[in-house]
Amino acid sequence: MPLVLEFITCKRVLSLMIILGFMIHHMLRLNISITIVEMATSKKSNATRMSHGPRYNWNEEEKNDILGYFFCGFFVTPVPGGRLSEMYGTRIVFGVSLLCAALITVLIPLACRLHYYWVLFARFVLGMALGMQWPSIPPMAAKWVSPSDTSKFMSHMKASALGAALTYPVCGYLIASLGWPSVFYFSGGITLLWTMAWFYLVYDSPEQHPRISREEKEQLINARIVNCTAKKSKTPWIKILTSAPVWAFVVCNLIFCFTTYLLLHQVPSYISQVLHLNIKQNGWLSSLPHLGKYAAAVISSYLADRALKATKFSRTTVRKVCTTISFWGPCILFSIQAIWGDNYTVSVVVFTSAFAFMSFSTPGILANCVDIAPAYSGTILGISQALAGASGYVSTKVVGLITKEEQSFRQWGYIFWIAVGVNMVASVIFLIFASGEVQSWNSTDSKQIEEADREQNLPLRG
Asked: DSSP character for 211?
């Protein structure tokens, strides 16, 4: 028993809760991506038209608006979410955001019965709730982990891929067995249970945790960056908004999210309309890329942290190499998909491999916001996620515009070529402007950071 208790540390419990939280995050935002195949009438799909619940006369543009209004709400809250997490803690921001999202989710079937505009409103509010989640994590990372473990800790956020991988097949079976409304009731109920566990088990820092052992607390405090908490006033907005490394992070994360959202929300429709698979097959094929995505995120983060600890590469070099892989891998694969993607096997290989390559963004782009400004990492990620929300809405409008008249492989080929182009642009921007150095306007004293890096045998950022 003592060995079990020694293994179940507060840091490991925190990691597990974050992993589950991000799995739930994607479950809540993606469940409608597959249910909408059965919620809306369609005259063009060869997939089975067996009734799995009430159907609504929504055209392709209206269906994409339902997906897109999530991003309108998602655009509003990331910056406040990141800043509030820096000031008042991740625990309350992260927990309340998922609690609100759960309540909205269980009301979506009712919204559908009332009116199409209530569905848009529900998706907008859901986006607002979940928009606060991503930027709330970096402030907690700065308090619970050392610089040498940042990539691994941030990879917990990529557990959202596991959520997507489970969501699609589970939703497929729920729809087939109980009808599509059951998906929203199930998703909301699971989230409410997680919320209760979160507020009991998780605290913002080792100092605040009432059940942490003295040994673990001292170890965590000594390992992390000193003075990583942002003040509740005097945020250096001008310096943040005029920093080239910040904008390299923001723009590249925006483009990365554009590509991710394009795949996350549109692959089920592509599988139904172009590959003509039924709802169960759709669920399994939609889930496969996300399994590879999470595995690659964990492995690449582990290798990146090992490279930093080995003192052979600077932090900037590691971030740039990982980010380049995350952009150029999909460029090659989407080119293949645009040419031969009407083949089932090619689509499986491309989607699975593309997500795996994109996972190198975890030790590349995602960890970079903690590198350049640990005290304001939530704010910086919030700015990026707000713009990313806008890009997600743009992605749904692009797909809706291109496929409005015809859901064909030819039309989808244009979409994949667009993804190739934006990924190439992003890779060049990050290579030129990104940095792994802590910026001078960060509230942490630079000498303390250098000492912390030397104590852990890390190369200085640069």
From this structure: T
C-beta separation of 145 from 153 below 8 A: yes
Helix (H) or strand (E) holding 373: none
**pLDDT per residue as tens digits for the range 298-313:** 888 888 888 888 877 8
**Total residues found in the chain within this entry:** 462
Range from 67-81, 86-100, 110-124 carrying the lowest mean pLDDT: 67-81
Task: Provide the 3-class DSSP secondary structure of residue 40.
Answer: strand
Tracing tokens 């309350």 back to the chain, one arrives at: 92
DSSP result, 48-67: -----S--B---HHHHHHHH
Q: How many CB atoms lie within 10 A of CB 324?
A: 17
Q: How many CB atoms lie within 10 A of CB 309?
A: 14
Residue 230 sits at φ, ψ, to 5 deg, of -75, 145
Question: How is residue 448 written in tokens?
Answer: 């303390």
Phi, psi (rounded to 5 degrees) for 351: -65, -40
C-alpha closest to that of 319 among 380, 379, 253, 384 = 253
Distance (Å, whole) CA 282 – CA 278: 6
Q: Could you give the angle at which helices 10-39 and 90-114 cross, rounded to 10 degrees?
A: 20
From the CB of residue 51, how many other CB atoms can be counted at a distance below 10 Å?
Answer: 9
| Alpha-carbon 461 to chain mean position | 26
Distance CA 413, CA 270 (A): 11
3-state secondary structure 247-267: HHHHHHHHHHHHHHHHHHHHH
- Quickly count: other Cβ atoms within 10 Å of residue 451's Cβ: 12
How far is Cα 289 from Cα 281, in angstroms, rounded to an integer?
Answer: 14
Specify which residues 396 forms β-bridges with. Answer: none
Q: pLDDT class for 460, splitting at 50, 70, 90?
A: very low
* pLDDT tens, residue by residue, 186-223: 999 999 999 999 999 999 888 888 888 888 888 877 76
Quick: pLDDT tens for 406-455.
778 888 889 899 999 999 999 999 999 999 888 888 864 444 444 444 44
> Within 179-278, where are the H helices?
181-201, 214-223, 237-241, 244-273
Decide: helix, strand or coil at residue 103.
Answer: helix
Phi, psi at residue 9, to the nearest 5°? -80, 165
Are 404 and 60 in contact by the 8 Å Cβ rule? The answer is yes
* Burial (Cβ within 10 Å: 0-12, 13-18, ≥19) of residue 302: middle
* Single-letter residue type at 346: V
